[in-house]
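cache lookup: miss for this entity combination. No prior model stored, computing from scratch. Input as submitted by user K.M.:
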Amino acid sequence: MLLADVNETFWFPPKASTFAQETDSFFMAIMWISTFFFVLIVGVMLYFMTQYRRRPGYRGDSRALHNNALEITWTVIPTIIVIWIFARGVYGYMDMVRPPAETIDINVTARKWDWSFQYPNGAISDTLHVPVNKAVRLRMRSVDVLHSFFVPAFRAKTDLVPGRVTTMWFEPIQEGIYDLFCTEYCGDQHSEMIKRQGVFVTSYDEYEQWLAEAAKPPTHPVAHGYWLYARRGCKSCHSVEPDRRIVGPSFAKSYGESLTTSTGESVVFDENYIRESILNPQAKAREGYQNASQMPSYQGQLTEDELMAITAFLQAMKQDDFISVVADEDGLTKEDAISLGFGDEEDSAETAEAGAQEETAEGDGTRPESEEASGEATSPDAEQDQ
Amino acid sequence: MSAEAAIHGEAHGHDDGHGHSPFLAHHFDDAEQQYDSGKLGMWLFLVTEVLFFSGMFCAYALYRSLHPEVWTFASQFLNETLGAFNTGVLLFSSLTMAWGVRCAQLRQHKGLVICLAMTLGCAAIFLGVKAIEYTHKWDLGLLPAGSYESQYLPGMHHSGPSSWLYVLSAIPALCVVGFGIWYGLSLAKGDKQKSEVAGPLLVTALCYFVGVGIGLAFESAEAGEHGDVAHAVAHTDGEHTVDGHAGDAHAAAAGGDEHATEEHGEEHVEEPVADVAASPAFQSEELNKLLASPGETTMVASAAEEAAQVAKPGEATEAEVDQRGGAGLFFSIYYCMTGVHAIHILGGMIVLTWLLVRATKNHFNEEYFGPVDYVGLYWHIVDLIWIYLFPLLYLIK
Amino acid sequence: MSAVPADSARAQQEERENFLVFSKGFLSWALTLDHKRIGLMYLIGVMSAFFLAGILALLIRLELMTPTNTYMNNQTYNQIFTLHGAIMVFLFIIPSVPAALGNFLVPIMLGAKDVAFPRLNLCSFYLWVSGAIFFLAAMFYTGLDTGWTFYTPYSTTTQGPVVAATLGVFILGFSSIFTGLNFIVTINTMRPPGMSWFKMPLFLWATYATSIIQVLATPVLGITVLLLAAERLMHIGIFDPEYNGDPVTYQHFFWFYSHPAVYIMILPGMGIISELMSVHSHKSIFGYRFIAYSSIAIALFGFLVWGHHMFTSGMADVTTIIFSALTFTVSIPSAIKVFNWLATMYKGTVQLNTPMLYALSFIFLFTIGGLTGLWLGALSTDRVLHDTYFVVAHFHYVMVGGTLVGFLGGVFHWWPKMTGKMFSELWGKVSCALVFIGFNLTFLPQFVLGSRGMPRRYAQYVPEFQELHVISSIGAFILGIGLFVALGVVIHSLMRGRKAPPNPWGGATLEWQCSSPPPYYNFATPPRVNDPYDYTPLEYRDAERGWEYVHPPTTDTPATEPEPART
């Protein structure tokens, strides 16, 4: 592959999948055809404009002209051209919708306004990691409204329709980091439902290595809670900085506080409130949050242990020190965790970003959970897939 | 309907001295051109009406093909007798309408008034019966998907006229009073034209209550003869959680077989469905009962074959269909289609009333009968739509 | 009013009886059944809607100058683009040419006194007004953020007055249906003796084709928005997956109307261009029958292609391919029209005045709009370009470059007839140049944005795209200035314009035979029905600065039957 082919050009983003070459050359073919006709039409128009303009001493003919041969010519030639364009479009399309037999299957879940990707080994991540030169098939569903998965560099796009499962496939041919956009309007944060530099195409070995790491959540409940917060879509609507509202309320300094609900009741932000708000968000919405209609229910998507971990994380969010650490984009480092007094299990109080330091032995207990979660996540789809 | 009113409104008062019919609008050359324009306009309007309904017919076809089991389950809650009666009423009204057009062309003043009055009366009877059907379903919780109440919860009883019926009947009752007074006054004053309008309108408003009475009679006859379908189904909740096949047959048969209801239903009525399902003791007890009486199951199943063919192995049971709310979708489409149709009947009644007023003023003759003709076309299309709705919703299983 | 020649009793009578001043007072307008007054009221209505939505467009472009939120947050941006789209589509483009210009022109071009159902016509106008009020109140009340397409399940779950807006659309739909119905009946039954189908002006053919779509497609929109409202109010579960519905069904229902609606928007524009090209080239239209048939062909094919809005939404492959094939069939009649318009200029006498410059701009812009449709009809490229700025640029080239520019050309062309005033040619040309330059500057960069992957409806975007967005925004402001100049030109003409002769351009269709503005009864005597594109009997009179018939044609001229090619 020549370098010139894969880099960004005036018209196109990098060519990072097998579809790119075909689609781009087809794009340019239509471009040349169109340019030809456009120049022809505008040229003729300008020529007639000047040649036959009204001026002293010139008197045009106003009688009707007709020429059936001409009419037929300019009907038949465009017809032939569009038939060719149609056929070539179908050819490229069939390639796009027919995945090869061997694919790496990844489950994609879209919600307002985040993506989550579930890999064959049960790992869940909010960024997409795929190996180069391997066909990847995405099995996609939306839990709320329409979304659309679009990676310009892959020239691949398919809508995610609630109540249906849609699939798409692509084969990356160029290692690198690419953008992922949502292209179907999905509400307030539609334009932020993107993964800027969030699609990682790596060699197969690196992919395998990443996958193994990603499947192991931290064992410390607080760290696990943060790990889930970053991966399961909480992050896109709830900030960890005090009083910063993205869509939903901030998580910082909430625990133990007394709140007013939209119906005027007073509730305490405690373990049971957290649990209820995750599983049934509309039950006790806070005042000023429009009955929490934007928040999807996580019923059946989080295990009990995961709920406990999130609760532990939210409880930790009442401490100023902890907040400043979490709000710092890098998340929790080992030193921070120690300084916060998570003494006995400090090693595990880390995020996946710092996941390389994690002790592998501690991951065992969580594997069945994530597999369970994956089963729950996919089975309703299988039923509805017609 | 503003459309018809506006189209026909053309005929009013544009007499600028052409010397022809007083109803020839100034911008038309002659009566024929006016008639042709009106007729073409009406046909185009009917095309838009058909397309308007076609959206719902598409939705019907689509969801029926996606969820045939839902349709089979849910359509058993519709009362075919009432549907058939209403079909007959509308067909008869089409006859009177067509006859009315003929009377207008022949300048038969009295015949036209009688035909219009009969058409209006039939429309009112139709709406009366429809009111019974609707309120019956509202009482049972057979509502659109969002508010649908599962029929497998116990305690679904339906007895006598619903409170909704009183709400719906308030306007017709007011009409009876109002038209009655008007009719009395016009008779007292000896105003022939007014009494010719008020009389038929009074009859029309009364016809609504005739429809209600007929509907109630049919409903109670149905209940007395077969037992209330929904009622019986509600009693059989337990079986469905035990054995889909037998339970289905049982439920479906329950509507037509009192024996089955007596045998199994009563003792479980008060138990919430969740408890029933959760209780292993109950399950084994029920299972044993069913297994112990194979003869009955066979008989019930054969009786059920006609009524519902849900009990194919591997398909969703009725209970499943019902409880995951699928049946609500059927009722959504049922209410949309019949509701929009009923609105068209109401619109038709308004236009017919307008015709009645003009007929009593002797406006129509062999040269000028366009409005009667156009309304007739509209009325026929409304009937025609019902002719499609009836088999699609009530009859096809 | 300008000075009345005292010596001319006829002129005085014309002045007295013209439809603008014949009767006075608010009610004489509000309750009028005169198609010309209704047309003018529509014109003011749609221009106000356009002004409002145009301001919103400028706000959108202002915000998109920078990649992050600068002047408004995401929510406001979403509401503004929804308002912009919904107002432009439902309140401006759909009624613009058919309801405003069509109402004025259809009966006069037929030599008739009025449309077939004048009351229904007024009823349409008031439906439009009430729909507009309903719609705008709903949207300004709390803000609507669904996009003009109301896609479910977003529209069934979002906050905001979706029900009110959909009912507004429902009412506007009926306004559109009644207008279409009225025109079909008028054209069918009220053609004067001698005007056969193939002696009708092409504008009437285009209006007829448009009306067919309005009558056949709009009811489906009606039922769709009704079901959507019911979905929101009662959760009927037809479109909402939460209650077993299917969002893709909504898309099918919606586009079954809204794709033909695209042709409701563009066909009348094409009709205007057919008139303008011929009149201002002083040359009989080339290929009359081909243009007429192509209008009908577009109207009919337009019903079969709605699926091309859904190539990525998971339809079956076969369905997708069929829709792609059908989509390309629409491109052929459009191409035929463009070639015929060009050939019309051949050997004519091209008058480069304001309406003609708009018409030529139309051809330039519509050609780009049409050709870029090829990328979007082809399946593999559409998978990439769908819902990106490429689509935005494409449909703006068709709807703004096509319909709006055609509409402006039509307004300038018939302005003397409607108001009896000539406008400033110089400033008219300036407005055309500004619109042309501004428009291209706005939307050409968006094709590149799209092919690079910039998605639509984004309040914020990745910084790489900023340069092109800035160019686009600058273009939008030039376009805005151009449109303001155009508005200034027509307003100035009302105050200072010289009196227009009956036939300032040398048109041969019937509306040029009555005075400018026409009397309330249109024609005192039935007009001479002749070939609408036969200019030979017309001659320019310097005194009146207008054209007159030197030897009136007889009605039995074998008119549009084209003469054999002379070349």
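stored under new cache key. Confidence is low (pLDDT under 50) at residues 1-6, 555-567 of chain C.
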